[in-house]
């Protein structure tokens, strides 16, 4: 029931997204498009909308899985160093293999984000003081350290501008031929869904998982690998979308709970429609110019994040 | 049957369990008792494969615990640790359904649904089945966890301080439920208990630990004497009997 509301909302927003833009393609022309209009739709609008949906859903699922595995509501790719590590990977790829294909870059970014995430998990295991807020703060600091290394080497090699492109999530550069790598994420969604029950069990704690005959460490490793893969492919095609993995899963959790079998599809759909809405707004506010998605989600997201923090006594603590 | 041979456990250089030999009686309630840090919870953790041991072996139905497949063992033995930092928001029904995970990996069959319904009914949780766990009282939460263990349908049930954070009424209810699980369903239950009098009233067998060693074990009748309890707790305890149940007075 609830699922269908989200499905319809996502479809409506997606249709809207296809028909909103500088070049006028009114919905009423949908049945008799000129060749020019078909080109605009196929080269720009359609890839853009698809990438928004995949990236929005993907980053939200990443957050959901991370929160479940670390048993902390404030852990997400943004607050665990995953994004920063992936970006360092991109820089290394550009510096060491300047002519590498996107796939190679993605693999290198993937290796870095896996490493970054696992280092963060190791840090978590060593921290005695397990306050709900303290852990994401450690993650943010860890991310900033990685980020400063990235900036340093980018600066020395005149790559700052290049790297900033990955810092700022932006859908306006998404065109046919430059976003298809995102499709890698779709099978990952399926794997995440297959493992949804196991992630829920692991989220109840190690002894709970072992009691039910699960291999705790293997499930955690699978979850974090999925997160790292999704994050790297999104970062390389769209860029960083901050806070998304933080707010979307939390809002769903407040209303639907934490049984991933049920919440994972909802989180994906809500993430997609949230980013669609932000992107459409960003395209309209200063029309015909655009506000980048990372700014839109960042502003809205940090606001919602503050609200979540303020009501955490009731919910997350 | 659960049996341990010469179990040894060390944390860094400190020996917390030393050469523990134990045979847990079948279809009875066995209580591990002893002072804080005596090694009760560690022993329970090792017997349930949650903790690794440095030496010795644990036999479950005559097979070494390391040779058991974790999934197969989860149909044989259930362990519930005191759970005070629950974060996930699940409904009671979701939680109890996870008890069937070893059998169906999350895709519940008709048979699984029946077991879940039975467990919910047994613990009187039907009216609460759609409620979120974090909205329940401590006693109700503990009942939901026990319902999960019942749904898991294992011969052996291991519980680490199941009475923690329960008030008197809920604690008595919990012990009565465990008693019925043994008497009606023939389960073998091992508990770590802090309250010696609960152990005395509901357990059949007692294992007293001190400094990582078993200093006394036997039927409740045998252990509930001033002498034996002095060996375990290092303090003088008066025993009194009310309605055929022995109580130990340690308040003054």
UniProtKB/TrEMBL annotation, chain A:
Gene3D superfamilies: ABC transporter involved in vitamin B12 uptake, BtuC
GO CC, any one term: plasma membrane
Domain of life of the organism encoding this protein: Bacteria
Signal peptide: none
Spans through the membrane: 45-66, 78-97, 103-121, 133-155, 175-196, 208-229, 235-257, 264-285, 291-310
Subcellular location as annotated: Cell membrane
Keywords: Cell membrane, Ion transport, Iron, Iron transport, Membrane, Transmembrane, Transmembrane helix, Transport
MF (Gene Ontology): transmembrane transporter activity
One GO BP annotation of this record: siderophore-iron import into cell
Record's keyword annotation contains Ion transport: yes
Membrane topology: Multi-pass membrane protein
CDD domains the record matches: TM_ABC_iron-siderophores_like
UniProt entry tagged with the keyword Ligase: no
InterPro entries xrefs: ABC_BtuC-like (IPR037294), ABC_transptr_permease_BtuC (IPR000522)
Similarity section: Belongs to the binding-protein-dependent transport system permease family. FecCD subfamily.
Record-given protein name: Iron chelate uptake ABC transporter family permease subunit
Automatic annotation (TrEMBL), chain B:
Subcellular location(s) per record: Cell membrane
GO molecular function, one term: ATP hydrolysis activity
Membrane topology: Peripheral membrane protein
Entry keyword set: ATP-binding, Cell membrane, Ion transport, Iron, Iron transport, Membrane, Nucleotide-binding, Transport
SUPFAM superfamilies hit by this protein: P-loop containing nucleoside triphosphate hydrolases
Ranges of residues in domain ABC transporter: 2-236
GO BP annotations, alphabetical order: iron ion transport
InterPro entries membership: AAA+_ATPase, ABC_transporter-like_ATP-bd, P-loop_NTPase, Siderophore_ABC-ATPase
GO cellular component, one term: plasma membrane
SMART domains for the chain: AAA
Membrane-spanning ranges: none
Major localisation: membrane
Gene3D superfamilies hit by this protein: P-loop containing nucleotide triphosphate hydrolases
PROSITE patterns on file: ABC_TRANSPORTER_2
Matches recorded under PANTHER family: IRON(3+)-HYDROXAMATE IMPORT ATP-BINDING PROTEIN FHUC, PETROBACTIN IMPORT ATP-BINDING PROTEIN YCLP
Identification of the protein by name: ATP-binding cassette domain-containing protein
